[in-house]
Amino acid sequence: MDEKVTITELYDAYLECRKKKRGTIPCAEFELNEAANLYDLWLELNTGTYVIGQSDAFCVTRPKDREIFAAAFRDRIVHHFLIRKIGDYFEAFFDNESYSCRKGYGNLYGARRLCAQMQELPNGWGARLDLQGFFMSIHKPTLCKLLEDFIRQNHKGEDVDFLVTLALQIANHRPELNCYKKGRTDVWKRLPANKSLFTNADDCGLAIGNLTSQIFANFYLTYLDKFVREKYPNLKYGRYVDDFYLLAETPEEILGALPEIRAYLYDALRVTLHPLKVYLQPISHGMAFIGFYIKDGRIYTGNRTISHLRDLIRMQASEKDKEFHVEQFTRRYNSQAGFLVHTYSYNIRCRAWYLVDTETKAYLEQPPWDFTKIQPLHQYTLKYKIIKNYYDNVQSKFA
Q: Which position among 28, 102, 265, 285 has the lowest Cβ density within 10 Å, counted as fewest Cβ atoms?
């Protein structure tokens, strides 16, 4: 058998895949028979019998209604394996003004970058733009052609055919044909036809929720990045997933570029610039971007993030067993507060703490002066309860 995937490579991909996932049921089930499961997956990949398994499909309602597909754990290992093999090629290809799905970048980096660019043009104009149903409108034949050419051009190893085949298998996969729907099924009824893989065109759409979908989508729009940067070098540009912005000295420069950008997106990538989401205004008025609001050289928290934190506090206040939910509440609260701490948001964090109901506060320590995080009292943590229960059982045996 010609070994295209070594067991070491697959094991390393598995270790990376299970990071922060060891508390989930799919990861635990795979780990119960780890050696046999990895061997079976290794054998399937090397013999060409690997078939993508069943996904979990569900909908989320925040920040808006959206359909998510979670691949089976063994398939996620394959995703990590593939990106470990060809991820460096993507990283070298990505534009410096692309901020998503990249180590060392992210939404905070994008907000800071936009803030710096706005300070260079204090009297200029800015436009914030969006693509219409981006993930669901990605044209698979176009993506696969770009992927195959890209991998063959950059990867010179003997396993190039195998990697191309695997990448195209993942890109062409239609998870809606083999999935288990769970959660709130009523949300699907609210989704427009072009927002769901179940009602979308057969040759369009990538599943939101998989590592490869994020990387492939970023790769797909890197061609837009390069087009804008080469065609309009005088414009300042940045992109996070399918949200992007243009900055210029005058509004005419931006309005003059939009028709060609719209045409390139449609002709070359088969995606559409959203006709109702083109926001043009003076830079001095500030700009909203990926959950932040940037103005006067400062980064403020977006209203949506503040709303999420307040909803979380109200949800905790409505819980009957507050002690049982306090650790989960703490984790989710700190996740939001950790986002806020990078913005001008002291008063928001302060008010948020005082919105927490008195009963919940009885299970929490007093937060630090800057309200950057909260934590439960030691005796109410799950770890403490497990240890206490263990020693209580030991003492009862020797009593």
A: 285
The C-alpha angle 31, 33, 38, rounded to 5 degrees, equals 80
Q: What are the residues whose beta carbons fall under 8 Å from the beta carbon of 176, sequence distance 6 or more?
A: 57, 69, 197, 198
- Cα-Cα-Cα-Cα dihedral sign, residues 42, 44, 50, 52: negative
Helix (H), strand (E) at residue 90:
helix 73-93
How many residues are recorded in the chain?
399
Q: Are the CB atoms for 178 and 246 separated by under 8 Å?
A: no
Query: Which contacts (CB < 8 Å, 24+ apart) does range 254-258 have?
Result: 254/125, 254/126, 254/127, 254/280, 255/280, 257/228, 257/231, 257/232, 258/127
Cα–Cα dist 231/294, whole Å: 27
Are 210 and 69 in contact, with CB atoms under 8 Å apart?
Answer: yes
| Segment 223-249, tens digit of pLDDT | 999 999 999 999 999 999 999 999 999
| Alpha carbons 340 and 310: distance in angstroms, whole number | 13
357 pLDDT exceeds 80? yes
Q: Which of 14-28, 88-102, 201-215, 272-286 has the lowest mean pLDDT?
A: 14-28
Cβ atoms 286, 126 nearer than 8 A: no
